[in-house]
Amino acid sequence: MIEPKQIIRSNRKSIALVINNKGELIVRAPRAVSQAQIMNFVGRKQAWIKEKTDIYKKNDEKYAVITMSAGDKVFFLGKDYTLVSSDVSDIVMEGMVMYIPQNSNVKSLRDWLKKNALLLLKERTQYYAQGMDVVPHSVKISEAKTRWGSCSPDNSINYSWRLIMCPLPVIDYVVVHELSHITQKDHSKAFWSRVETVLPNYKEQRNWLKINRKLMDVI
Ligand SMILES: [Zn+2]
């Protein structure tokens, strides 16, 4: 039986099950409901809970920490490339192989990913900013491991460089999300409808980020 990691009580009217970003079960319950009633509810919903948490497990297994050993997988724009040490002077991608110079280490791979992340994120931000008629103060990349992007009160946008490992539609979602904060600082209905007018399928990308969170920890 999959047990709740946390039970949060509030003035709500019914019990709700939530799978958090780590794939853990969180129960939201009214104050008056007993522990036994909650566990009974959780017991009856096991099939649904298992189905949801399995998605997280499956995705977690897909991502292993990069150690620069033969056969390591490096994700780039959502595709996984196999690392091969080779007689090249800079990283080269061919087919599904990523050839790396013989003296490479994790830091050099990270620097290369950061360089590509900054170039792409600046380009995508400029593209969407024009269409949305907004102007960010600046665009930078960050080391953030807990969030993919942020927009400060003065409209400086920061992206986690690790976004370069995600598929392009997912990157675009984060770009549009942060650009939408220029006119809307909260996550209100107005904010989400702004995102939706630019990217009607944004929920799919937002969910992808949720279930592929482990990608943040591979490098
Ligand atoms: Zn936001």
Question: Can you give a write-up of this model?
Answer:
By secondary structure, the chain is α/β, with parallel strands linked by helices. The chain has two domains: 6-62, no CATH class; 109-217, Zincin-like, CATH 3.30.2010.10. It has six helices and ten strands. The chain has a four-stranded mixed β-sheet with strand order 4-5-7-6, with no helix packed on it. Strands 1-3-2 form a three-stranded mixed β-sheet, covered by helices on one side. A hairpin with a 4-residue loop joins strand 9 (149-151) and strand 10 (156-160). The chain is flat, with a radius of gyration of 21 Å.
Brief account:
The protein folds into two domains: 6-62, no CATH class; 109-217, Metalloproteases ("zincins"), catalytic domain (Zincin-like, 2-Layer Sandwich), CATH 3.30.2010.10.
The CATH class of the largest domain: Alpha Beta
Can you write the helix and strand succession as a string?
EEEHHEEEEHEEEHHH
Low-confidence stretches: none
Number of strands: 10
Q: What is the domain tally? A: 2
Q: What compounds sit in this structure? A: zinc ion
